[in-house]
Amino acid sequence: MPGDGTLDVRIDAKAFAVPGSAPQTVLRDVGFAAFPGEILALLGHSGSGKSTVLRIALGLDRDFAGRVRMPRGRIGVVFQEPRLLAWLTLAENIRLVLTDGVPVPDVADLLDMVGLPGVADRLPSELSLGMARRVALARALAVDPDTLVLDEPFASLDRRLAAALAVLVAERARRRHAIVLLATHELEHALAIADRILVLAGHPATLAADVTVPDRADPRALDALRDALLERFAFLGTDA
Amino acid sequence: MPIRAASVLSLLAAWWLGAWLAASPQMLPGPYRVVAFAWRELSDGALPLNIAITLARVIAAFAAAMLAGSVAGYLAGRSRRLDAVIDPWAVIALNLPVLVVVVLTYIWVGLNDVAAVLAVTIAKAPTVFVTIREGARALAPQLEELARVYRLPLARRLRRIEAPQLLPYLAAAARSGLSITWKIVLIVELLGRPNGVGFALNLYFQSFNVTGVLAYGGAFAAIMLVAETVLLQPWERRANAWRRHA
């Protein structure tokens, strides 16, 4: 039985209404638990339901059969779209989510950490999509979260920057002993930082794999896992 | 700006020409006569007093209509159930002739300032309601989700997330509201108050004093025009600024 600090997601079925026809089931029997300090990567092709799983985990979608328990504590989120407030500066966007009890971080430092030095006083309209996503990541990290939910946070970033940010997220999460739930279609991001890899596949999507990532000090074991996953889920080898 | 000035000058010229052609100061006095009359009324204090009284009623009714319409509009925009309750009332109020509202309010509440302000509020609030309801319906659900996930306090949600999105709608409602409010206030005063610009207009109408009607009507319209240009238009521009950059 998972404890208070555990993220526990059990989705028996999730369907979407389709006008003029029967509801379409998109997820079936998707269940997993994540423990403090654990990084879970949720992989799947585009449209496989990764974002839906995240929305359900966050309590934003309650129209499903099953149950979800979020751990106590603060939550940091990066949605697929940056969701920055157009009328606030980037610094104000970050400070917006700080609530009582959260140590006030240095916003300039946070922005610097995600590769955006000297932009704190700019408006979101002055940023590219990739930059806006990084601000959203800085905002999520600003609350010093106990649970970090990330939906394709490294999309539209170049590979080197994406890899650096993935490592940054992992370091911060491990230091804080936080749970990270990362939805991505990039197998390499998952292999770089995750403790476990979950794969959504099929129609409706089910949890087709839930594997533990081996010690990264053993590159051969990592390569073997990569090969096994690519062999079983060919879509992981594409940018879909 | 030069085009605007030229337009105002051409209006004055047309007025002056019309007065000259009419050749009857009783029917259509020229600008000079009207300004001279207004100056006399200004000197003896009657014009400033009546304008101040009307202005106070306009401000009270405008504030009450904005407050009532905004609160009801916000609630209806956020809740289908509340909208189903409030909407029929708003539709009836929107289609009720202002004159009917004024007469009934005077009969039921009495010939006093409370009735005057209440009548204007009832007549104006429904249009504010409709505008703000649209604004509340257009609030971005993505930002609401963001607020929920980060468990933002209600006051912060309203102030930092919802208010900026509603501000352009509030500004539009205020701008159109002010121009309608002061016109309704004049009718209300004309029908049942012993002072104010509307009362003065009625007085000069009874004595067929077109100069007086134009002096009072023009003076008050000028003040409202200044209020709109100096206060409301810049505020509306500021309220919409983030939309232009978004």
What this model shows, in words?
The complex is a heterodimer of chains A (240) and B (246). By secondary structure, chain A is α/β, with parallel strands linked by helices. In chain A, 32% of the residues lie in helices and 27% in strands. Chain A has helices at 50-58, 90-96, 107-113, 129-142, 159-176, 187-193, 219-232, and strands at 7-18, 21-34, 39-43, 65-69, 75-78, 147-151, 179-184, 196-201, 206-212. In chain A, the strands form two sheets. A six-stranded mixed beta sheet of chain A has the order 5-6-7-3-8-9, sandwiched between helices. In chain A, strand 8 (196-201) and strand 9 (206-212) form a beta hairpin. In chain A, 41% of the residues are buried. The mean pLDDT of chain A is 90. Chain B is mostly helical and 246 residues long. Chain B has a single domain, classed as MetI-like fold, CATH 1.10.3720.10. Chain B is built from ten helices and no strands. The longest helix of chain B is centred in the C-terminal third of the chain and has 39 residues, at 154-192. Chain B is globular and about 75 Å long. In chain B, 33% of the residues are buried. The mean pLDDT of chain B is 91.
User: What is the name of the CATH superfamily of chain B?
Assistant: MetI-like
Write down how many β-strands of chain A occur, each being a DSSP E stretch of 2 or more residues: 9
Q: Provide the number of structural domains of chain A.
A: 2
- The structure class of chain A reads alpha/beta
CATH superfamily of the largest domain in chain A: P-loop containing nucleotide triphosphate hydrolases
Helix content of chain A: 25-40%
Number of individual domains of chain B: 1
Per the principal axes of the C-alpha atoms, what is the gross shape of chain B? globular
The Rg value of chain B, from CA coordinates, equals: 22 Å
Mean pLDDT of chain B: 91
- Major sheet characteristics of chain A: 6 strands, mixed
